[in-house]
Design goal:
InterPro entries: PurM-like_C_sf (IPR036676), PurM-like_N (IPR016188), PurM-like_N_sf (IPR036921), ThiL-like (IPR006283). Keywords: Kinase, Plastid, Transferase. Residues 30-143 form the PurM-like N-terminal domain. The protein folds into two domains: 31-143, 60s Ribosomal Protein L30, Chain: A; 150-312, PurM-like C-terminal domain (Phosphoribosyl-aminoimidazole Synthetase, Chain A, domain 2), CATH 3.90.650. By secondary structure, the chain is of the alpha+beta class. 33% of the residues lie in helices and 21% in strands. The chain has helices at 7-19, 63-79, 101-118, 167-175, 186-197, 203-212, 230-240, 256-259, 266-272, 285-294; strands spanning 33-36, 42-51, 85-95, 121-129, 134-143, 158-161, 222-225, 243-247, 279-283, 299-306.
């Protein structure tokens, strides 16, 4: 019997690998495409698709928050490429005919609030009937400082994250009644739920990077966001740049209140929980030091080294995290 390949059987990475042959070499390394315009400004474009029961659910997320999340998630990819100005978005919606206008109105109220917070306007879109709710967003922005590419990491770089991780996953766990730790304070519960429902694209870090760049330092930073998990983001930077990444296990970016909790999965949530939408950067140490000094939420969590040189690295960095035996978000 002939086995038929499906998206589920080949997986996301193989799908992306096969699609890459239809584009110029390296074109699909990032989540955005950069087009050279006639002016010094460069246009940045990103598209994301959000499917009900895969990316959002009315059981855990209100329509206003769904609207915010789909815009914030798409804009986060712009920030991860160095975008510092949002131009606008297009939104295409598929929904059953039984979907209430109230749901649509509240969703659009949420996405409008996100655009008001980070800039840009609703440029257009499309809609169609279907069996399930699907929201497709395309965002456009511009780069006026410097670009971030996943393949710009170099051996010796610091690996820096723009903030703590695992809080969004804790929020989802609370909403799904997965945790019953009485030591989780009311404030932490609300922070976690808000982190899950209302993520923030980190455009502010792009501006800080520009402000603190050491004198005479060329612009070179590898970057992505941690929407699919911190571990996966570091893997992408290292693989795209032909490097290996060493992570200091004592420097995992827990939120202070969360680090003290007796949660069995909290380290997994930090590394693989996803949807934190923080920037993950690989940059020269002097620039990394300046960034940490300018923003106390940023943390150094490791270093990049040359491929196949792990054993040569000083013992002060604890270990290379294996690619085996971990869970991650899967699109198929």
């Amino acid at each position: 019997m002939v086995s038929i390949e499906t998206l589920g059987s080949i997986g996301e990475d193989e799908l992306l690998h096969r699609l890459a042959k239809y584009a110029p070499i390296g074109q699909l390394d990032d989540d955005t495409a950069i087009l050279n315009l006639l002016s010094p400004t460069q246009l940045v474009i990103n598209s994301d698709v959000f499917v009900e029961s895969v990316h959002f659910s009315d059981l855990t997320t209100r329509p206003e928050d769904i609207g915010w999340r789909i815009i914030a998630a798409t804009l986060s990819d712009l920030a991860a490429t160095g975008c510092n100005k949002v131009i606008g978005v297009t939104i295409s919606m598929v929904a059953p005919a039984t979907t209430s206008w109230d749901w649509v109105e509240k969703t659009y109220n949420g996405l409008s609030s996100c655009l008001e917070s980070y800039g840009g306007i609703l440029l257009g879109g499309d809609c169609s009937g279907g069996k399930e709710k699907i929201l497709a967003v395309t965002a456009l922005g511009s780069v006026t400082t410097g670009k971030l590419h996943r393949n710009d990491a170099r051996p010796g770089d610091w690996i820096v994250v723009s903030g703590p991780h695992g809080l969004s996953r804790l929020g989802l766990a609370i909403l799904q009644n997965e945790v019953h730790d009485s030591n989780i304070s009311f404030v932490l519960r609300q922070q976690a739920i808000r982190a899950h429902r209302r993520p923030k694209p980190r455009f502010d870090i792009i501006n800080v990077l520009d402000q603190v760049r050491p004198k005479d330092t060329p612009w070179r930073i590898a970057g992505t966001d941690s929407s699919d998990g911190l571990f996966k983001s570091i893997q992408l930077l290292a693989k795209s740049s032909s490097c290996q990444a060493i992570i200091d296990q004592t420097a995992l970016p827990f939120k202070a209140d969360m680090a003290s909790l007796n949660l069995q999965d909290k380290s997994q949530w930090v590394l693989h929980g996803g949807e934190d939408f923080e920037l993950v950067l690989s940059l020269p140490p002097p620039w990394g030091k300046a960034l940490l000094h300018a923003d106390n939420q940023c943390r150094k969590i490791g270093v990049m080294v040359a491929e196949n040189s792990i054993s040569e690295h000083p013992d002060s960095v604890n270990s290379w995290i294996s690619t085996d035996n971990f869970f991650e978000f899967k699109h198929f």
